[in-house]
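Preliminary data (for renewal application), calcium ion complex.
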Amino acid sequence: MTTFRVFSSTTLAVLLLDVCLVCCDITDGNAEHLKREHSLMKPYQGVGSSPSSQWDFWGSTLVTSSYVRLTPDERSKQGSIWNTVPCYLKDWEMHVQFKVHGSGKKNLHGDGIALWYTKEKLHPGSVFGNQDPFLGLAIFLDTFRNDLHGMDRSFPYISAMVNNGTVSYDHGKDGRSSELGGCSAEIRNREHDTYLAVRYSKGRLTVMIDVDDKNEWRECIDIGGVRLPTGYYFGASAATGDLSDNHDIVSMKLYQLMVEHTPEEENMDWSKIEPSVSLLKSPKDNIDDPTGNFRSTPLTGWKVFLLLLCALLGIVVCGVVGAVVFQKRQERNKRFY
Ligand SMILES: [Ca+2]
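Predicted structure:
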């Protein structure tokens, strides 16, 4: 039985380590994998229009030493900031610290921030200050409800859209017809820091938020079957209309995710991929989806917990059965001799 106890504690330690590794994956950006050429951080050196700069900005954007203000709390402003280095990572995670604040009372503020991974950069337009239609991925932090029929959700509302350059963003419906998923989140006029993380890995798009000063990520969007090419640009933009807010970006940190791909995947030209989505619902609603896009995706916290529980139960059962069999054999052996 001593052997069993040693075995179980070692196994438990290994399992706990595995769980920690899985859980910590999205919450802590590993500094080793931070990609500085795609990150925007205080004091924002290398931001500007010189040929050597890694970030360029447009419109009402104001760069200070402690934040990048895309729009001030004034009417009819648009601003954006764009990474000038195209991203060739296949698997990545972007952590954005942002702040939306202003003097407008409830429902009297707008319009919000959009985060981008797109083919083109610095093309001003009507989608939160960026062009319409766009080609690539957008995450919208929409603070103003345009669609008065959509009362089933509260604002601010965070949503994702993947566009192959043919679909227009419908402001009147808050982009509902083209959204892939979303969640409501109190992101405005918070006293504490507010964060959002976008992860793209193996065709899975995950958006997590940390806006309640709990220092933990809350899942907002999680969908499989998303195809995005390499070679696009990261950016952020914001717009105000009749109503306004300060839309500030404090930092955008890009981390490379170490993920193995099959030789076929490695050999294909990822820059030729057309942005698309094969699953329009959350993977949770597509358990029987034949494409199996989400099956090989990372485990979520509760799944890991269940697996751990099953593993422990398995070990206990094996131990007990083993002990009983051992004892029976000993008894049988005694009888023979
Ligand atoms: Ca809106």
